[in-house]
Design a protein that fits this description.
Alpha-Beta Plaits, RNA Polymerase Alpha Subunit, Chain A, domain 2, four-stranded antiparallel sheet, 5 helices, about 25% helix
Length: about 240
């Protein structure tokens, strides 16, 4: 396993594993427990949005987690007035929001909104607001070039996988290839198989976080949950 790229909320790795296993890990993301707003008590809402719409927006705001399996509910208060947008960062309480510039509603001069929100821990299997992020993957391409491969494939490739060096076509970054086959199709129209592109046995796996926990934790927690479920399944059939 090799780390290709690492950002604040994204991790891209290369691994030689079966697609079935990668897909099982991907699906296990929905079993990671995450805290999100569950109950909303709106005592005042002069904004143009219905109470139900405001509550829905609050539920989708990612909340920062200090540790996994924090069972106790947290409370957040929103007391805003005046003219302008009301943002997620205006909510104050026992837990912080991940992004403080998510718009909740808009108030005109003299309008007020007062809300008490309570959190709950659950998983994305129950509702999407408890999702920590997502995982997706693709096959890394295996590319073989003939020495007389036409230069036109450089511009034809939408991912700019190829370049020219010393008059020859070179593979710049095969990880970017999405197996679209445009280069192969062009060469076949020329009457020859100058290039061969097919899926390899390596996968490029991207993990993206919504901010509650980092992308590395999402991957490790998904693997841990999958192992636990497989152990329970194994015990059940003995």
């Amino acid at each position: 396993m090799e780390i290709i790229e690492k950002k604040e909320n994204q991790l891209i790795i290369k691994a030689k594993i079966e697609e079935e296993l990668a897909n099982a890990i991907r699906r296990s993301v929905n079993k990671i427990p995450i805290v999100a707003i569950e109950d909303v008590e709106i005592s005042k809402n002069d904004s143009p949005l219905y109470d139900e719409t405001v509550a829905h927006r609050l539920g989708l705001i990612p909340l920062k987690l200090k540790k996994f399996n924090e069972k106790k509910p947290f409370e957040l208060n929103l007391d805003a007035k005046g003219e302008g947008f009301v943002y997620s960062g205006d909510m104050k309480g026992d837990i912080e929001v991940v992004y403080d510039k998510i718009p909740i509603t808009y108030l005109k001069k003299g309008e007020v909104v007062k809300i008490l929100a309570t959190t709950k821990e659950n998983t994305a299997s129950e509702h999407a607001r408890f999702s920590p992020g997502f995982i997706f993957y693709k096959n890394i391409a295996e590319i073989k070039l003939e020495s007389n491969c036409p230069k036109e494939i450089i511009d034809i490739c939408p991912k700019k996988v190829f370049n020219e060096n010393a008059g020859k076509i070179k593979i710049e970054n095969k990880d970017k290839c999405n197996l679209c086959g445009l280069c192969v199709e062009y060469c076949k129209k020329q009457g020859k198989d100058f290039i061969d592109v097919k899926p390899s046995d390596e996968l490029l796996i991207a993990i993206e976080s919504f901010g509650q926990i980092n992308s590395r934790d999402i991957f490790e927690k998904s693997v841990e949950i999958l192992k636990k479920n497989l152990n329970e399944f194994s015990k059940g059939i003995k």
